[in-house]
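**Sequence, structure tokens**
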Amino acid sequence: MPDTLSAVEQKVYHYLLDFLTAHTYQPSVREIGKRFRIKSTKTVSELLHALERKGYIERDPSRSRGVRLLGFEGSRRTQPIPFYGKIAAGDPILLPEHRKGYITVDRRFLPSEDVFWLKIQGESMIGRGIFDGDYVMIQPSTEVEEGMIIAARLGEEATVKTYTHRDGHVVLMPANPDEHEIIVKEGDNFAIIGKVCGVFRPFQEVQQHEELALAE
């Protein structure tokens, strides 16, 4: 397990990650110094040495861009998946103005290219391991089976429930004894959005701020 980074080392490491993602190559020592207003190349080299010693990078001192981010090869097989704060009542249900951002995921875990995330509010599905604040990955589909966990639209509200039937009606079942089932009646503004195919649970969501320049 890599050693914990200092605040300065973490800023430089994140810069290396972001730079490589944007440019497909690593920044030079001088570019790192310019980004953080560090005049001494020796200071930058010491920071890179600390990242190497703690197990985050490997370096080739003979090259100006001789930094390899350990484990980054897997990141090249990822895909950014959008998440939405709300859904629209009409078609399409997913509008650009409702998109709140992206969560990048290894493509091995994506059942299709058109998946997206919705953020859970409430505790109606805790019995199925889905909690308030979780992000659920949705695979768009109207072909769902009995007992599946689905995302559905009721008016302009999205809900995640277990899909079932009773007496000819669709019933959306919670997984919490304190919550009530939803019986979909004829004439209700109802549509199936898709199947829940994954759950992401951040234990802490970090707000992204503009990085400050580092003191030399």
User: Anything to note?
Assistant: The helical segments are 7-23, 29-35, 41-53, 72-75. The chain has a mean pLDDT of 85. Residues 19 and 26 are 6 Å apart (CA to CA). DSSP finds four helices and eleven strands in the chain.
